[in-house]
Amino acid sequence: MKSNVRVIEWPEGMIHAVPGFRTAALHCGLKRKSDKPDLALLACDRPAAAAGVFTTNCVCAAPVAYSRRALRSTGGYARGVIVNAGNANACTGQQGARDAREMARLAAQAVGARPIDLLVCSTGVIGHPLPMERIRAAMPLLARRLRHRRGQGDFARAILTTDLVRKTDGCKVRMFGRTVRFAGACKGSGMIAPRMATLLGFIATDAPVVPDVLQRALSEVVDRTFNCLTVDGDTSTNDTILAFASGTHAPRLLKEARGPEYEALQAGLYRVCDSLARQVAADGEGAQHLVTVVVGGAKDDRQARVIARAIAESPLVKTAIAGNDPNWGRIVCAAGRCGIRIRPEECALTVCGFDLFKAGQPLPFDAAKVSSAMDGTEVSIVLMVGDGPGSARFYTCDLTHGYITINADYHT
Amino acid sequence: MKSNVRVIEWPEGMIHAVPGFRTAALHCGLKRKSDKPDLALLACDRPAAAAGVFTTNCVCAAPVAYSRRALRSTGGYARGVIVNAGNANACTGQQGARDAREMARLAAQAVGARPIDLLVCSTGVIGHPLPMERIRAAMPLLARRLRHRRGQGDFARAILTTDLVRKTDGCKVRMFGRTVRFAGACKGSGMIAPRMATLLGFIATDAPVVPDVLQRALSEVVDRTFNCLTVDGDTSTNDTILAFASGTHAPRLLKEARGPEYEALQAGLYRVCDSLARQVAADGEGAQHLVTVVVGGAKDDRQARVIARAIAESPLVKTAIAGNDPNWGRIVCAAGRCGIRIRPEECALTVCGFDLFKAGQPLPFDAAKVSSAMDGTEVSIVLMVGDGPGSARFYTCDLTHGYITINADYHT
After folding, report:
1. Are A365 and A355 spatial neighbours (Cβ–Cβ below 8 Å)?
2. B362–A contact, CB cutoff 8 A
3. Which residues in chain A have Cβ-Cβ distances shorter than 8 Å to B334?
4. Which of A126, A192, B32, B303 could crosslink A88 through cysteines, CB 3.0-4.6 Å?
5. Rounded Cα distance, B343 and B398, in Å
6. In the prediction, which pLDDT does B233 show?
7. For residue A18, what is the DSSP state?
8. Which among A188, A161, A402, A158 is positioned nearest to A279, based on CA atoms?
């Protein structure tokens, strides 16, 4: 993902500020608190190129099945997506499939498009049918808000469940001599099941690109950002990342997945997805530390990724970080057990800039000093496992009493 | 592992009660508290058939490398094993290798055997050289205790680290018309790294069997017992299971890995290893529940095992159990994401005897009643994923505040 593309920061970038997009949100009654929006609409003024990456879980929710199919049947064009939080519409059988279809139809009316042009995402409790009457009742107001462009910024808040903070980011790059914008919003606190966050992400751009190429770029970028993110090692029934590109009517369209314009597209998507993935890890349930695990010197990127993931998912590594404990043994052990052949004699471990382990043995270090360095919001782990060209980076968070409280102290 | 062999219970069975074996233990100063034994010897009166299963972690401790080599060079015969707790002798470089060799030599002197006939196991903190002077100083007393058969029962206690309880079990089976005994002791609370439990297990039997066949039976049994056990998903630098069979001088020796006598050998080993594995899960760090995950109806046993393991290792499943929460969604989701193709429509889930999920949707159930049933020491999860012949069983425990306290609130 390294490139020479110049990415211009646009941290205040929101989806509705990208040319061609509008958003609207309101509270329809899926979340208990009436000040929390729970139904949101992202609309494209004209058919946009659309691409999606969906959960690989065999147990997938009705909106996932619906949106996958819709994207296929339009050849990758869409006019928007309707999203609800508070109910995942998963494990809901035939009724769930009908409800997803109806949501698309209602949203299409609001946007003035064909039902097939609208995608659907849901997140929240699983195993409960959607209270469709509330969604139906809320649609006229949602449509009005969309037309009058009111409450557009609430989109990012309406998609949240157990998240503590709203997650958005934006950037700009040059394509075909013009500045194009990227803005994204996502939700996720790392959990999978009832009453929990699952990962949903939405990226809007006015880049001029055909659907196939957008899909290719999104898949590649998600693979190195959202797919290198773990809070508790689970994937949900509803995980979905959608990208929309409104520049489909530009004079010049990117039709090939190569060259400098493609690199610019990738760079823009990467910047937004990377930022959103980091924000999810930082807001992981119970998280006190955002942890970045970098593995270098592996045979190839795939091997590096397996090692990085084993470290990022190890409960022992994550609890050590919760305690600001420079427990190099747990990190090296996690790397050693992941199925990739490593030689401890060739390993070197650095935590928060301190060298802790090299050539099979611990280095002398001041534990209090390292512990104090770990006591910030960010912890970095860098493990070199040899002199190969493979590297990978994973985002995760620590495992704390807060995680247990959220997940165990709740009763069905 | 199903067979028609009659296994006779012998729950009070200890290694030293199996004909041909003696044990001894004492406190030499590796553990801080002087009332806790930390050095132990298991001795066979005559060369016994010996077999071992070792950690697959690339970062493996010096005693693991030593014992593997010793078993190879004797062709699978041994006179015993010396075990210390409190220090893993892992990540200790060349000094560690020398120390493991010296431990074998000291133990061989005590037993009156060749150094190569003694195996070595260590467990405890990693990255610190063994304080060999304490081990050296303690050996004469350990040898005396072995000769005078004093403190033999302390073997099972001397191998513990963070374990709360001693883990032993025994049984008897008939082989070649005679009753043979099996007794085992193990330690493990599920952790891998500094100051923690790693899994060590020792099984003694007077079964008449040649080393190759003992190795084959042990590997098969460990694969379905200790290898179907998870507390936190990590494997340590020191994990070792050793089996010794003293009947090498019996008139009839089992020389083939088939037939009813082989089945009897397997049944005896299985009974002891299964019991010890259960005891480790029940004593997992912070554990409040022993959890048994059974997956049936899979394409084959391997697929069933992957699914069972995903459920057993899911932090979301484990925290739900900590809260006595019949959270079927988390269990089904964990199964759905493990890479094995399952169809929710073909799944059926039972927790503590209650049917919670079937044919892609939740069943109506009384949550309070199920929660109350989960509030015992044991929780059973049974997931059918189809009508295939594959099945597997995993032992695990719940994930509690206790786990976080033990592992995060400790400072290096």
Report:
1. yes
2. yes
3. 192, 234
4. A126
5. 27
6. 82
7. S
8. A188
- B 296-315 residues with CB < 8 A to A: 313-315
Choose among A232, A342, A371: nearest Cβ to B411. Answer: A371
CA B264 vs CA A186, B218, B222, B277: distances in Å: 58, 12, 16, 20
CB contact under 8 A, B58 and A342: yes
CA distance from start to end of chain B: 43
User: Is residue B243 a contact partner of residue B51, using CB atoms and an 8 Å limit?
Assistant: yes
Which residues does chain A have within 8 Å of residue B352's beta carbon, measured at their own beta carbons?
Answer: none
Distance from first CA to last CA of chain A, Å, rounded?
A: 44
Give the domains, in start order, of chain B with CATH numbers: 8-282 (3.60.70.12), 290-408 (3.10.20.340)
Rounded-to-integer distance, Cα B312 and Cα B331, Å: 9
Global ipTM: 0.90
CA angle B166, B168, B171 (to 5 degrees): 165
pLDDT digits (tens, 9 = 90+) for A371-402: 999 999 999 999 999 999 999 999 999 999 99
Contact B11, B169 (CB under 8 A): yes
Q: Answer whether A94 touches B (CB < 8 Å).
A: no
Q: Do A344 and B59 touch (CB under 8 A)?
A: yes
Of A249, A245, A254, nearest to A48 by C-alpha is: A245
pLDDT in tens, B275-297: 999 999 999 999 999 999 999 99
Q: Where are the beta strands (DSSP E) in B218-334?
A: 240-245, 290-298
Whether residue A407 and residue B320 make contact (CB cut-off 8 A), yes or no, is yes
